[in-house]
């Protein structure tokens, strides 16, 4: 009885190994949104479809820069080239660009996307601006 169960289990594992996985179809997206997130230390560029799902992304670190070089405008341009190269394989030709944050890579990333061949339909700046911010610390006594 135990030997028969072992044979059945071996047969089941062979059947599972033979099953083929279905090939995933690539989505062809012609219009996209590009989010450029800039900080003083890095720039992240992500392409998403109009429902908000990220298709491809790239950053200065992913483009091969390390340390303080990630915060430069040149690194942002290279990251933009890299991101558009990945997105072009999926059929992206035109996009709306949304920029967030402060940093040296803001203009450079947009310029890199444009020179790479992306048709920019709209350009928006959604940098969060604090309205008076958080409450400051209390002053020390005696001053």
Outline the structure in words.
This protein has 143 residues and is of the alpha/beta class. It has a domain of 95 residues: 2-Layer Sandwich (Nucleotidyltransferase, domain 5). The chain has a five-stranded mixed sheet with strand order 3-2-1-4-5, covered by helices on one side. α2 runs parallel beside α3. It is extended. The protein starts with a helix and ends in an 18-residue tail after the last strand.
Write the layout of secondary structure elements.
Elements (H helix, E strand, L loop, with lengths): L1 H17 L12 E8 L4 E6 L5 E6 L13 H17 L4 E7 L4 H12 L2 E7 L18
Parallel strand pairs: 1-4, 4-5
Antiparallel strand pairs: 1-2, 2-3
Helix pairs in contact: 2-3
Number of helices: 3
Low-confidence stretches: none
Shape: extended
Which fold name fills CATH's third level, the topology of one domain? Nucleotidyltransferase, domain 5
The CATH architecture of one domain: 2-Layer Sandwich
Main beta-sheet strand count, sense and barrel state = 5 strands, mixed
Report the order of strands and helices.
HEEEHEHE
Estimate the strand proportion: 15-25%
Task: Give the N-to-C terminal Cα separation.
Answer: 89 Å
- Please estimate the helix content: 25-40%
How do the strands of the widest beta sheet line up side by side? 3-2-1-4-5
The CATH class assignment of one domain is Alpha Beta
Task: Indicate the radius of gyration in whole angstroms.
Answer: 24 Å
Average pLDDT confidence is 87
């Amino acid at each position: 009885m135990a030997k028969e169960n072992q044979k059945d289990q071996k047969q089941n594992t062979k059947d599972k190994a033979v099953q083929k996985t279905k090939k995933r179809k690539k989505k062809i997206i012609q219009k996209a949104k590009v989010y450029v997130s800039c900080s003083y230390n890095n720039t992240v560029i992500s392409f998403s479809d109009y429902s908000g799902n990220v298709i491809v992304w790239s950053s200065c670190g992913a483009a091969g820069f390390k340390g303080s070089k990630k915060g430069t405008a040149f690194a942002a341009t290279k990251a933009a080239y890299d991101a558009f190269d990945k997105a072009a394989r999926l059929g992206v030709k035109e996009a709306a660009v949304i920029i967030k944050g402060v940093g040296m890579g803001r203009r450079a990333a947009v310029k890199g996307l444009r020179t790479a061949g992306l048709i920019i339909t709209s350009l928006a700046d959604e940098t969060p601006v604090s309205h008076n911010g958080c409450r400051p610390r209390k002053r020390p006594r005696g001053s």
